[in-house]
User: Which sequence fits this backbone?
C-alpha cells in the first residue's frame, strides 16, 4: 500500500490550490463486500488533473469540507497518511460515503470517467452490497459456537477428541464429559461435581435427577456449555427442552419533547413483571408460566442490573424487572453509550439515535456556516473542533474544548461565535482573564474583521445594558464581569464562552457565581486543564455549561460505591469534553509553533508607566531645545527606553524606590502560562535579557515550590547543568539569560519556550528557541512571546518587521553600538503611535 501525504498538505494557505478526491471501486464489489475486503483506489483531482496522493506536487492544497472529512477518515484508518489504495470493510465504506453524499466522487474501474449517480442519498451500484445481514441460526445437529474474543482453542473434533454431550430434559440432565485429553476436561469435571451430578459407571454419564436443580443449572450454564465447552446437544434433549426460553433484556426509549423517557427492563412476552419480580426475590433463576419456562441467564441479569444503576445513578440499586427515568437531552449521549457498552437491546426513535451517536462518527459533523476564507485558515483538527462545537450548539447542548495549549482553542471558539451571531443576530459574550482581553480582541480583528467587537474592560466600558445589543461579540474579564454583574445579568446572549475555565473551578467563588447567573442560550468553556485537583472541578464546570447534568454523589457511601460514582461521572462528562494533545494531531502540526501572547497593564501599572513615559518625552524634548549633541540625545533616549522596557516587565525593576507595590501584568500572564504548562506535563525554558527579571521569577517559583535550574553569564559548567535538566524530569523550569544561553546549548528536555521580554532581533530569539527545537527533540515545541499591549514592547515588535536592520544594535550596551542608531528612530519608539 503506497502512502500519500498527511493532511498537513491541506488547509494551510488561503490561496492554496483547490483539491477534490476520487474513489474508484472494483467491478467485483458484490463478491468482495461480504468478505469486508473492498479495495478502494484513492486519487487526488487538482485543476482537472488526476494524481495519486503520493504524487502531489509541492505546495499547499485546500480540500472542501466534504472531501476534507473523507480524507480525515481515510487517514484515521491508515495511520495518519492519505493512502493511494486501501481495503475497507462494509462499515468503513458506509462511513466514507456519508460526507460525500451527492458529490461526483465515486467511480468504477470500468467507467473511470463517469461518476456514479446518487439516488435518494444512495448509490444503487454500491449501497445494496454494504448491508450487513444477520448470520443464519445453526442447524440443530451442528452446534456452532459463537465467536469469542481472543484466539479460540482448537476444536476437540479437529484433534480427534470426543466432545462434551448434553442429554436429558427439563426434569433431569445426563452429561458425557469430553475426552480426558481435551483442554476443557478438568473444568467440565469440576462443573458437574460442583452442581451435584452423580456418575453412572455403566454408561459413564453424569446424572442430575432433580427438576429444580436441572433448570437452575441450565439457566446459569447453558451459554457456557455451548460457547466455552462446545458441547453437543442431542436431538432428544432439544426436543424435550424446546419450550425453554430465555428472559429478554431491553431498553425502551420514547421521545417526550426535547427529553426522553428511558426504561431498562427484563421481560417475557405475555408475562406480568410482578411474576418476574417474585422469582428474583426468591433467588430463583427461572420462571415457570403458562407460556413455558423462562431461564434467567446470570450474566444478563448482571448486565441489566448495571444498566439500571447507571440509568438511575444509584450505585447500590438492586435489580428489578423495570427501571424507568426521564433522561434530558444533555444525558442522551452518555446514557446511549452506557447501554451500548452493556450490550442491551435498544428500541429508540430516530431522534435518540441522532443525539446519542452523532459525536461518535466524524463524518456526521458539519462545518459551521461561516465564510470559506475563514475556514481555509484552519488546520484540519481545528475544522473538526469547530464542527464539534457547532454540533453541540445546534443540539442545544454545551461543551468544554480542552485542547492542549498552543492548538488554537481561541480560533476554534471564534469560528463558533461568528456562526452563532450570523444565525441569531444576538450578541455573544467572551469572559477571560484580564491578561487575555487584548489577545481576544486582536484575534477577532484578525480573523473576523467584519464582526463588530467591543472589549468591555477597565476604563472602556459600556454604560447601559442596552448597548450590548449593538455588538456581535462582547469581551470582558472575570473581575470586570463581577463588578458589572447587574448590567450583564439583564442582557440576553446567544452564547457565553468562558476562557481559561480554571478561574471558575471553585463553585463558591464570585467569578463562578456571576458566570452562572448570566442568561445565555448556550454555554461553552475553554481550558487546557479540565481536571486539576479532583473531580469536583468537573462539577463546577458543568454547573455552568449544563446545570444539573452532573449530580453529586450522596453521602454515607462505601469506598466501592464512591469509586462507582466517580467512574460514572467521568463517563457522563466525556462526551462533552474534546481534548486533543499535540502528539495526537502531530501529522497536521508544524514542528515548531510560535505564538505571541498579549497582556495589558492594570490601572496602577499603566498610571506608573504613563508617568515615566511623559517624563522621558519631557527630558528628551528639553535636551533638544538646549541644542544637545546627537550622542547625548541618543544616550538619553536609550536610557529612557531601557526604563520603559523594565516597567513593562515588572515595576520593581525600574521603580526601586516605589513605596506602594504595583503588580506586573506580564508576571501574572507568565504565572497562568506556567500553571497550564505544568498541568499539561510540559517543561519550560524561560529566556530574559534582564537577570534582575529572572531573579524575580526565581522568587515566584520558590514561593510555589516549583523546582528550576538557573543559568546566566556567571554560571560555571553550563553543559553539565544542561545535561542534568535533560535527564531530570522532576525539574520543570530552566531560567536562562538570553545572552548567556541563547546559543550553544542542547536543552531537548523542554518542549515549551517562553520569551519573557522581546529582543530586537528575531533571529536571536529563534536561536534561543532552538535550544529545545533541535535534533534529539521528540516532541513538538511551542514558543511563546509575552508582549505588553500599547507599550514600547509592542512598538519594538512592530519595528522588528519594518526596520530589523535599524534595531540590530539598539539594545547593545556599548557606546559604539548606540552610535549606529539615529536619534530620530530612538525618539520614534518613545512617541505614541498615530
Assistant:
Amino acid at each position: 500500500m503506497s502512502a500519500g501525504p498527511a493532511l498537513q498538505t491541506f488547509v494551510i494557505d488561503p490561496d492554496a490550490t483547490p483539491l477534490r478526491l476520487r474513489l474508484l471501486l472494483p467491478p467485483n464489489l458484490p463478491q468482495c463486500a461480504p468478505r469486508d475486503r473492498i479495495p478502494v483506489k484513492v486519487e487526488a483531482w487538482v485543476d482537472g488533473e488526476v494524481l495519486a496522493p503520493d504524487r502531489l506536487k509541492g505546495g499547499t492544497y485546500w480540500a472542501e469540507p466534504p472531501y476534507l472529512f473523507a480524507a480525515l477518515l481515510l487517514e484515521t484508518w491508515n495511520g495518519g497518511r492519505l493512502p493511494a489504495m486501501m481495503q475497507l470493510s462494509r462499515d468503513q465504506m458506509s462511513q466514507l460515503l456519508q460526507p460525500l453524499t451527492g458529490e461526483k466522487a465515486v467511480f468504477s474501474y470500468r467507467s473511470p470517467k463517469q461518476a456514479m449517480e446518487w439516488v435518494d442519498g444512495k448509490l444503487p451500484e454500491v449501497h445494496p452490497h454494504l448491508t450487513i445481514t444477520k448470520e443464519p441460526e445453526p442447524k440443530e445437529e451442528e452446534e456452532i459456537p459463537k465467536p469469542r474474543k481472543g484466539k479460540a482453542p482448537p476444536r476437540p473434533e479437529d484433534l480427534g477428541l470426543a466432545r462434551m454431550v448434553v442429554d436429558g430434559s427439563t426434569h433431569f440432565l445426563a452429561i458425557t464429559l469430553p475426552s480426558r485429553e481435551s483442554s476443557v476436561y478438568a473444568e467440565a469435571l469440576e462443573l458437574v461435581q460442583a452442581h451435584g451430578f452423580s456418575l453412572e459407571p455403566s454408561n459413564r454419564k453424569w446424572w442430575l435427577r432433580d427438576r429444580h436443580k436441572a433448570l437452575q443449572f441450565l439457566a446459569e450454564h447453558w451459554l457456557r456449555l455451548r460457547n466455552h465447552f462446545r458441547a453437543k446437544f442431542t436431538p432428544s434433549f432439544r426436543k424435550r427442552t424446546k419450550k425453554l426460553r430465555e428472559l429478554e433484556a431491553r431498553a425502551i426509549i420514547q421521545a417526550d419533547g426535547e427529553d426522553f423517557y428511558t426504561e431498562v427492563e427484563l421481560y417475557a412476552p405475555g408475562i406480568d413483571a410482578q411474576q418476574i419480580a417474585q422469582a428474583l426475590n426468591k433467588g430463583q433463576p427461572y420462571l415457570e408460566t403458562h407460556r413455558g419456562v423462562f431461564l434467567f441467564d446470570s450474566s444478563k441479569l448482571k448486565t441489566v442490573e448495571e444498566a439500571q444503576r447507571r440509568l438511575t445513578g444509584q450505585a447500590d440499586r438492586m435489580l428489578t424487572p423495570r427501571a424507568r427515568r426521564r433522561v434530558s437531552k444533555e444525558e442522551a449521549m452518555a446514557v446511549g453509550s452506557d447501554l451500548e457498552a452493556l450490550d442491551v437491546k435498544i428500541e429508540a426513535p430516530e431522534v435518540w439515535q441522532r443525539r446519542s451517536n452523532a459525536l461518535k462518527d466524524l463524518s456526521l459533523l458539519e462545518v459551521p456556516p461561516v465564510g470559506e476564507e475563514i475556514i481555509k485558515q484552519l488546520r484540519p483538527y481545528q475544522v473538526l473542533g469547530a464542527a464539534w462545537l457547532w454540533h453541540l450548539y445546534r443540539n442545544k447542548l454545551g461543551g468544554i474544548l480542552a485542547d492542549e495549549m498552543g492548538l488554537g482553542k481561541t480560533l476554534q471558539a471564534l469560528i463558533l461565535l461568528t456562526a452563532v451571531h450570523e444565525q441569531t443576530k444576538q450578541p455573544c459574550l467572551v469572559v477571560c482573564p484580564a491578561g487575555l482581553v487584548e489577545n481576544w480582541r486582536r484575534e477577532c480583528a484578525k480573523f473576523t474583521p467584519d464582526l463588530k467587537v467591543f472589549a468591555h474592560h477597565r476604563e472602556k466600558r459600556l454604560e447601559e445594558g442596552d448597548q450590548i445589543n449593538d455588538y456581535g461579540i462582547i469581551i470582558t474579564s472575570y473581575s470586570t464581569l463581577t463588578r458589572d454583574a447587574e448590567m450583564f445579568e439583564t442582557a440576553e446572549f446567544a452564547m457565553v464562552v468562558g476562557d481559561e475555565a480554571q478561574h471558575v473551578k471553585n463553585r463558591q467563588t464570585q467569578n463562578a457565581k456571576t458566570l452562572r447567573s448570566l442568561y445565555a442560550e448556550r454555554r461553552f468553556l475553554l481550558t487546557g486543564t479540565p481536571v486539576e485537583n479532583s473531580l469536583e472541578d468537573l462539577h463546577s464546570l458543568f454547573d455552568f455549561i449544563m446545570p444539573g447534568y452532573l449530580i453529586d454523589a450522596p453521602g454515607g457511601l462505601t469506598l466501592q460505591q464512591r469509586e462507582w460514582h466517580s467512574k460514572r461521572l467521568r463517563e457522563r462528562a466525556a462526551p462533552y469534553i474534546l481534548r486533543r494533545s499535540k502528539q495526537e494531531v502531530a501529522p497536521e502540526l508544524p514542528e515548531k509553533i510560535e505564538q505571541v501572547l498579549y497582556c495589558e497593564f492594570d490601572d496602577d501599572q499603566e498610571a506608573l508607566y504613563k508617568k515615566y513615559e511623559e517624563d522621558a518625552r519631557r527630558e528628551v524634548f528639553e535636551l533638544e531645545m538646549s541644542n544637545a549633541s546627537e550622542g547625548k540625545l541618543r544616550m538619553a533616549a536609550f536610557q529612557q527606553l531601557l526604563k520603559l522596557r523594565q516597567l513593562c516587565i515588572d515595576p520593581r525593576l525600574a521603580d526601586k524606590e516605589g513605596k506602594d507595590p504595583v503588580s506586573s501584568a506580564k508576571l501574572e500572564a507568565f504565572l497562568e502560562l506556567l500553571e497550564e504548562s505544568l498541568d499539561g506535563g510540559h517543561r519550560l525554558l524561560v529566556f530574559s535579557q534582564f537577570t534582575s527579571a529572572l531573579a524575580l521569577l526565581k522568587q515566584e517559583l520558590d514561593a510555589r515550590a516549583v523546582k528550576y535550574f538557573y543559568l546566566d553569564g556567571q554560571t560555571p559548567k553550563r553543559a553539565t547543568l544542561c545535561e542534568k535538566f535533560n535527564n531530570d524530569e522532576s525539574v520543570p523550569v530552566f531560567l536562562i539569560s538570553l545572552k548567556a544561553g541563547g546559543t550553544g546549548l542542547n536543552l531537548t528536555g523542554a518542549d515549551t519556550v517562553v520569551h519573557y521580554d522581546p529582543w530586537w532581533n528575531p533571529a536571536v530569539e529563534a536561536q534561543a528557541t532552538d535550544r529545545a527545537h533541535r535534533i534529539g527533540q521528540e516532541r513538538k515545541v511551542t514558543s511563546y512571546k509575552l508582549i505588553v499591549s500599547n507599550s514600547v514592547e509592542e512598538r519594538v515588535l512592530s519595528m522588528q518587521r519594518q526596520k530589523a536592520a535599524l534595531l540590530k544594535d539598539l539594545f547593545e550596551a556599548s557606546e559604539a553600538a548606540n552610535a549606529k542608531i539615529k536619534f530620530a528612530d530612538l525618539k520614534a519608539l518613545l512617541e505614541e503611535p498615530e
